[in-house]
Structures are given as C-alpha cells and as structure tokens.
Amino acid sequence: MLKKALIAEDFESFNSSVQKALEELKIDIIDNVQYCDDALAKIQKSIRDENHYELLITDLSFVDDHRNQNLTGGRELISAVKKEQPHMKIIVFSIEDRAEIIDDLFKSHEINGFVSKGREDLKELKRAVKAIYNNEKYISLNIKNSIKTKNSYDFTRFEITLVKLLSEGMKQKQIPDYLKEKGIKPSSLSSVEKALNTMKEALEVSNNEQLIALCKDWGII
According to CATH, where is 1.10.10 located in the chain? Predict the structure, then answer.
C-alpha cells in the first residue's frame, strides 16, 4: 500500500472522513491542509527532503476567506503539483458530476482517480486508492456511466442543429419552417419530434430543457 498521502480539503468534516478512510488502508503518513497554497508548499518541502508524497487527494472547489491565495482551486493545484512532481498519484474528491469536466481532468490534468462526494463516497475512495496503487485508473460508477453514454452516443448534424435551435429559444413547432427555409432535410414536424425523442430516450432525459442542458454540459452546442 502507499506510504504517504496528502489531503487538500477546506471542510473539516470531509477532511477528517478522508483521513479516517486512509488510516483504514494502513497508509503510514497522512497529512491534511485546508488551502491549496499549503498543499503545494508541503509537496515542495517533501521533494526537498527527498521524502515524497505518493498520493494527493484534493477537492476542486475551495471557499474564499480572509486569507489571500495564489492557488484558488483544485485544478490550479493539480497543474502546479504536476510541474513539481509529474508522477504524483492524484485523486479528485468532489461534488462535481459533469461528465465533460471530469473527462477533461483525466485527459488534460492526467489525474488517476475521481470520486464523487455523496452516498458510499468513502467506500469508493478506498477502492480508488487501491486501484491507483495497482496503477489503474478509477472513476465513480455513476460518473463512469455518464461519460460512457456521452462517448457512445454519436450525434448527427441534424440532431445538433435541432438542439441548437431549441437552445436559442426557437419553439419546437417553429423548427420545421426554419428547416424548410434553409433547405435542410428532413424538415417535417414528425421528423423533428422523432429525432428529439430518440435523443431523449438514449440519453435518459425527460424533456427538451434537460436535453439542452446536457448538450451544453458536454460541449455539443
């Protein structure tokens, strides 16, 4: 098992819970901080002392208070840590649940695990630590399913056009006239309804508003 870990979490209750979970995994040294600047300072000192942290567990959002900070959030902290210690194992422990943001954390910030705060989160956190110890990636099951859906659904140009028009405030019943005017086919109301219903069913949303919100979150529109 990993020997030395650092927790960056500004809420004391979460900080204590994460520490307890790591203690149950028999991690020898567990330090915790409430500010991103302090986390980076500890990591830099550990490098100078040649007693490196092996794991960083960090939230994404940190509440502003009276203390001025150079690093104001988890993304900035992760980027700074990667410059100091590129191979540091990093788990994000956050309430964030938007698939495109989490996908970007793995691709752009090269994190090793993501655990969503919520039901069974400490059990998931322990699974994540065990996974990355074995050089595996880990992501909460509910988030994994969302990302899988995004990556597996292939939006057509026609579908994207429909969602974009709805997002701009056009009524569903007005769309056929717009499509005919622009020479876009199919242009019948039944075709529009069928395409929207297909997307909503596949993406498990119940109305156009939710479909628009999901497509915005995913960067489709």
Answer: 153-217
Contact 84, 58 (CB under 8 A): no
**Is 3.30.450.40 the CATH classification of the domain at 4-149?**
no
Residue whose C-alpha is closest to residue 59's, from 138, 6, 129, 1: 6
The CA distances from residue 116 to 37, 113, 128, in Å, are 23, 10, 11
CB distance 186 to 137 below 8 Å: no
Give tens-digit pLDDT for 87-123: 999 999 998 877 778 888 998 999 999 998 988 899 9
Residues of the chain with CATH 3.40.50.2300: 4-149
The CATH number of domain 153-217 is 1.10.10: yes
CA distances from 201 to 93, 152, 154 (A): 30, 14, 14
d(CA 143, CA 94): 12
Q: Indicate yes or no: pTM above 0.85.
A: no
Q: Are 208 and 196 in contact (CB under 8 A)?
A: yes
Q: Rg of the Cα trace of the chain?
A: 22
The model's pLDDT over 193-207, given as tens digits with 9 standing for 90+, comes to: 999 999 998 888 889
